Amino acid sequence: MDGEAVELLGVEVMWTVEPLTKKQADALVTKRHYSRRASMFQYAFGLIENGKIEGVVVYGSPPLQVVKHALNGADFLMLELTRLVIQTKEKNAASFLIGRSLTMLPQPCAVVSYADTEFSHAGIVYQATNWLYTGATKSHDHMYLIDGKRVHPRTLASRGITNPKQWAKDNGIETVPPMYKHRYFFFNGNKKEKKALRLNLKYPVITPYPKMDQNRYDDGERVEMHLTDRNADFQQSLL
Q: Considering only CA atoms, which of 23, 182, 171, 161 is closest in space to residue 118?
């Protein structure tokens, strides 16, 4: 993939965006993404600097209800940008990685992603790469307060808890309402395909973009991994 020269601390380096394996992507996601959980995986791409993976973006299949209710028609692929991790401190790294990776996805396709207000995210990187903003949504009814941490019901399901509400009631676990997530769409394809996808979008496009103060979350220790480490080991956290 063609690269781009950027200047970091007075030194010119070359960035490229390259496909990653699931193990490579999960090695960063499970240690540095705020969810600490691997995601559903179809495609992953890494931001490569001097052979090292400095960021990862992962695309997977969105929930069926999103596929059914977001757009009319079925002659396109629909994906969700499910994880984004950036290790380098360079401010343009996230938009560079997302912008390049979108061009590497099959076309035509529609991509949806969410910015979680619980972590003070407004979706600045989606705004910088010209996504369409379609409002805020709640994806579930409750979060669960465990040891002072808000835990998603999908995390409980991964632990074998099939009825989180009843489990919480039986164990005296406090339930708290989820916070809103800002929803964005990006359409890939030629001019005609992108126009058709836009016309089939069921949600209204909202302007201006939302704004909020950005607070950096604890993103863990740096993961040292090279693009050539195709079989990288990783540990999947439950939280």
A: 182
Q: Pairing between strand 77-86 and 109-116?
A: parallel
Distance CA 197, CA 195 (A): 5
Domains of the chain in start order, with CATH, are 13-131+180-200 (3.40.630.30), 140-177 (no CATH)
The answer to which of 131-140, 201-210, 227-236 has the lowest mean pLDDT is: 227-236
- What per-residue string of b and e applies to 27-65 under the rule 16 or more CB within 10 Å gives b? bbbbbbbbbbbbbebbbbbbbbbeebbbbbbbbbebeee
Give CA–CA dist 77/105, Å, rounded. Answer: 10
φ/ψ of 201, rounded to 5, equals -70, 125
Q: What is the pLDDT of residues 110-119, one digit of tens each?
A: 999 999 887 7
Q: Across the strands, what pairs with 175?
A: 144
C-alpha–C-alpha distance, residues 46 and 55, integer Å: 5
Contact 20/1 with Cβ under 8 angstroms? no
pTM: 0.79
Which two structure tokens, joined as six digits, stand for 156?
A: 């409980």
* CB half-sphere exposure, 227, CA atoms < 13 A: 16
- Whether the CA torsion 190, 191, 194, 199 is positive or negative: it is negative
* CA–CA separation, 40 and 53 (whole Å): 20
Which tens digits make up the pLDDT trace of 176-215? 777 789 999 999 999 999 999 999 999 999 999 999 766 5
Rounded Cα gap, residues 123 and 214, in angstroms: 10
Question: Which residue, among 15, 14, 41, has the nearest Cα to 26 in the 3D structure?
Answer: 41
